[in-house]
Design brief:
Largest sheet of chain B: none
Number of strands of chain B: 1
CATH architecture of the largest domain in chain A: Alpha-Beta Barrel
CATH topology of the largest domain in chain A: TIM Barrel
Order of helices and strands of chain B: HEHHHHH
Distance between the termini of chain A: 55 Å
Structural class of chain B: mainly alpha
Number of domains of chain A: 3
Oligomer: heterodimer
Shape of chain B: globular
Structural class of chain A: alpha/beta
Radius of gyration of chain B: 13 Å
Strand content of chain A: 5-15%
Helix content of chain B: 55-70%
Largest interface: A-B, 59 and 43 residues
Number of strands of chain A: 23
Mean pLDDT of chain B: 94
Radius of gyration of chain A: 31 Å
């Protein structure tokens, strides 16, 4: 089974015979070295990795021979729709854009589920992590990684009250990365502190056995604190506690990644604070890896603002160090992570990191200026740690509300999170191991009294599942109403009939977004926008973002709503695609019938990139086929175009027109056509217009012979010219 | 760090013991049933895997079959007889 780029991923195929599927590989995978001396196209890079075999380059890639350089940093896409069968399709989209770390968010409340969940129930804000879901996802990712030519790390969470069991599941099923930090359980999930640490030791040992990369949870203090920068000393302490504990129970430092977020954003003078913090944490924990996450604490519903924040966050990663650059969808602030925004997040990271390739060669921190501030931060963190010890240790500090206090330590405001050592969920469930305690399995942390004569703990059972995966039991569905088969049944029919609906996260969700500017105040604008959506026949219109352009003049409103109908794929009328002549055929014709053209941008238009691409041999332009051209430059008056064509004995005029305001382009087309008639040369000259907004039909209506729009290549124009002359010749 | 590491080294929990049973080839439902009963009877400190092996040895039957039956409530009196009072630390 393999994927074809022109075919959709078949969810039913993924679900077939899952009971016997085994992951192709296990363990974390870092990006590999570039095989070609870091040369991509005509550019030399410093910090790129092995390219993908198939991908979608950045939008401007078409101006650079469609190169898609991949930064050295792993790029994360977070996936959180609640339906894994739709998530796996998004994973494929993300992989094509350069994500190789797929972080699957768990359903709300899974942390408090005392055991494993089975089957494929629908989740809220994420999926229930179950064996079936994990196996199906890994199976899909095994195919997707072959398709793009780079291993993909599958990641989820080893947290909550069932950490050790989830860790077994992940080690068995080829999950490659996981969040694991007992402090996360304690502070944000209200799970008994003792239980959290005891469980964590076993969970971490299991993760280490399968080379699963650990990401810690300290960054959550950022998102939870009142003023994010004030928890900076505490963040260092939290990282230290989890890292030290992880190493002590057997994790390798190379597979421990600190999760760090630039705490602040504009309009605070965020760079200064973020930079000092970023340098300090990387200096203190230099033996470990860094996963740089983008700020979520200050994301509002404005996608552009979120993107600006994320670009600056990635700048910081490039200026310091990031082994993994994680992304948050810019619509995180709306709680509606959509396909497109997830991809935009990945593109933001790729764009920024590639653009700043090699930046550190020229720019670096002024250590003389920074050292005092960095020292201050370290001192605060050390004093914080000492304060914990003086108060009796970690559990006592948590009881006293040390963590996520809004004061800048040593200041304390007494508003931290408090958790009781002997309280919270799962209290009283930790049991001392007796002297004859025995666990007949591998990779088990802690005291284990092997029976006399037993060398390996799992020998008496003939090996455990980690070495003998055939022993793993696959549990399928437990809920006959809430499972993937029931959900698939509703979409399978429309799929088989080729019926289409818009989609933002789930198949057939029907959601579209409308961007509306209403020239009125925000209250009126919101009501008017909803009224417009209703009158358009859309269902459940909801305002997802508002931007005040002026309190009285205008408000920009974004609405999401459902389209209530399907579109029949087979009934769609597609514009005919131009079938071009072969390169050889064009070249041969031009060799036998020399051709010259004149070209330029007409009117008051300085946009010359497009026309140069159509002309230049370097971009596969018409020159490649032997067509000679006279390039007249930009903003050329139409009279000059025609005169030049006559003078050079050209057979065609190529006019480029990017500016289309008030249909100025139509006017220019009519003018050139008319002038050619007046000069008596219309019959011997082909008039061709081109530009991003040009359509063939409107160009022909305005008197041109042809119009070429976005995405046109030299061969399209050359082929048209040759075909026309061949036809004329045949007509003669 | 020593006290935290020691705490983890010397203790176990229902989730840890379920993770042991999973590694032995039980499924999550069986593991949960077994560990709940093991905890109720004060036998978790022996190790859930240890308990099921002891009983299966005594009954001379496959440990997976015995474990499933224990998850449903059978054989616990044998487990208590075999393990309780032995080397309690």
């Amino acid at each position: 089974m393999s994927l074809e780029s022109t075919k959709k991923l078949d969810v039913d195929d993924i679900l077939t015979d899952l009971a016997h599927y085994r992951p192709k590989r296990k363990g974390w995978h870092w990006r590999e070295a570039h095989p070609n001396g870091k040369q991509e196209g005509s550019y030399q890079y410093e910090e790129i990795s092995k390219p993908l075999s198939q991908s979608v380059p950045l939008p401007a890639g078409r101006y650079f021979d469609h190169i898609d350089p991949q930064p050295q940093e792993i790029i994360t896409a977070e996936i959180a729709s609640g339906r894994f069968e739709d998530d796996i399709r998004r994973m494929r989209m993300a992989a094509w854009h350069g994500a190789d770390h797929i972080m699957v968010i768990r359903t709300l409340g899974q942390s408090h589920f005392d055991g494993l969940i089975e089957g494929t129930p629908e989740g809220t804000g994420g999926v229930p992590i179950t064996r079936k879901e994990v196996r199906a996802t890994r199976k899909a990712l095994d195919l997707i990684e072959e398709e793009v030519g780079r291993p993909i790390n599958f990641h989820s969470y080893v947290s909550g009250i069932a950490g050790p069991e989830v860790a077994v599941l992940f080690a068995e099923e080829g999950v490659n990365g996981a969040h694991q930090d007992p402090q996360y359980n304690v502070l944000y999930r209200g799970i008994n502190p003792i239980r959290s640490f005891v469980d964590a030791a076993v969970a971490k040992t299991l993760m280490a056995s399968a080379d699963i990369l650990q990401i810690d949870g300290a960054h959550n203090a950022n998102a939870s604190s009142k003023v994010a920068w004030k928890v900076m000393p505490e963040l260092l302490v939290q990282h230290a506690i989890n890292s030290a504990f992880s190493v002590r129970v057997g994790m390798d430092k190379s597979l421990i990644s600190l999760s760090t977020v630039p705490p602040m954003t504009s309009p605070s003078p965020s760079f200064r604070l973020n930079f000092v913090y970023a340098l300090t944490i990387r200096e203190l924990f230099k033996e470990f890896r860094f996963r740089a996450q983008m700020n979520t604490r200050y994301i509002e519903s404005d996608l552009f603002d979120a993107t600006r924040i994320h670009v600056l966050d990635a700048v910081l990663s490039r200026l310091t160090q990031a082994d993994i650059q994680s992304t948050i969808t810019p619509d995180e602030g709306r709680n509606v992570p959509w396909h497109i925004n997830s991809i935009r997040g990945v593109e933001t990271a790729k764009h920024t990191l590639v653009a700043m390739d090699g930046m550190k060669k020229y720019i670096g921190p002024k250590t003389e200026v920074l050292k005092d501030e960095m020292r201050d931060l370290k001192i605060r963190a050390i004093l914080y740690m000492e304060d914990i010890l003086e108060n009796g240790g970690y559990f006592e500090a948590v009881e006293k509300g040390f963590f996520v206090d809004s004061g800048y330590f040593p200041e304390r405001n007494g508003d931290g999170i408090t958790r009781k050592k002997d309280g919270e969920l799962g209290a009283g469930t930790v049991v001392p191991r007796e002297t004859d305690y025995y666990a007949p399995v591998c990779h088990h942390y802690g005291y284990n009294a092997l029976p006399p004569g037993v060398e390996r703990a799992c020998d008496p059972i003939g090996g455990c599942t980690l070495d003998h995966p055939e022993k793993i039991q696959f549990v399928d569905e437990l809920d006959e109403n809430d499972n993937v088969d029931v959900r698939r049944a509703t979409v399978r029919e429309s799929e088989s009939k080729g019926m289409l609906k818009p989609e933002v996260e789930w198949k057939n969700d029907g959601i579209i977004q409308l961007d509306i500017t209403i020239p009125d105040n925000p209250d009126i604008a919101e009501a008017a926008a909803l009224e417009i959506a209703n009158r358009l026949g859309l269902e459940e219109p909801t305002v997802i973002s508002k931007t005040i352009l002026h309190p009285a003049e205008a408000t920009y409103v974004e609405i999401k709503a459902r389209v209530p109908f399907f579109v029949d794929r087979s009934a769609l009328r597609l514009p005919e695609k131009n079938v071009t002549l072969s390169e050889e055929e064009i070249t041969r014709y031009v060799h036998e019938n020399p051709l010259r053209v004149v070209a330029g941008t007409v009117g008051n238009d300085e946009h010359s990139v497009g026309i140069r691409e159509i002309l230049d041999i370097k971009h596969g332009g018409i020159e490649k086929f032997g067509i000679k051209y006279t390039y007249l430059g930009t903003s050329v008056p139409v009279e000059k175009m025609i005169d030049a064509a006559i003078e050079t004995n050209s057979k065609a005029i190529l006019c480029s027109m990017i500016i289309t305001h008030n249909d100025v382009h139509i006017e220019e087309m009519r003018k050139i056509h008319q002038l050619c008639i007046e000069k008596g040369v219309r019959d011997r000259l082909l008039l061709i217009a081109g530009g991003t907004q040009i359509k063939n039909e409107t160009a022909v209506q305005a008197g041109m012979d042809a119009g070429f729009g976005r995405g046109t290549k030299g061969i399209d124009v050359a082929s048209f010219i040759v075909k026309t002359f061949q036809r004329k010749k045949a007509g003669d | 760090m020593d006290p935290l590491v020691k705490l983890a080294y010397e203790n176990t929990s229902p989730s840890i013991e379920r993770s042991v049973l999973l590694r032995m080839g039980f499924n999550s439902l069986e593991a949960k049933g077994f560990v709940d009963k093991c905890f109720e009877r004060g036998l978790l400190g022996k190790g859930a895997g240890h308990v099921v092996l002891k009983v299966s040895e005594a009954l001379k039957r496959d440990y997976l079959a015995i474990g499933r039956e224990m998850a449903e409530g059978k054989h616990w009196e044998i487990a208590e007889k075999l393990l309780k009072g032995v080397n309690v630390g």
